[in-house]
Amino acid sequence: MSRHPTSSGEPASGPGPTRSGTLLRFTFAERWVHRCTAVLLGLCLLTAAMLYVGPLSELVGRRTVVRAVHVYAGIALPVPVIVGYLSRAFRQDVRRMNRFAPSDWAWLRDRQRRSGRLPVGKFNAGQKLNASFTIGAILVMLGTGLLMRYGHAWPLSLRTGATLVHDWLAYGVAAVALGHLWMAQRDPVARQGMRTGSVPLEWARREHPGWAAETQGEDQPETVIRRS
Amino acid sequence: MGRRVVLGMLGLGAVGVVTGRRLADLESRVLAPIQSRDPTGLTSLLPAGAGFRFYSVTGTVPHRTATGYRLTVRGLVDRPATFTLDDLHRMPQTRLIRDFQCVTGWRVPRVHWAGVALPDLLDAVGVSPRAQAVRFTSFDGSYSESLTLAQGRRRDVLVATTMLDRPVTRDHGGPVRLYVAPMYGYKSLKWLAGIELTSSVQAGYWEHRGYDTDAWVGRSNGQQDAPIT
Question: Do A132 and B223 touch (CB under 8 A)?
Answer without folding.
Answer: no
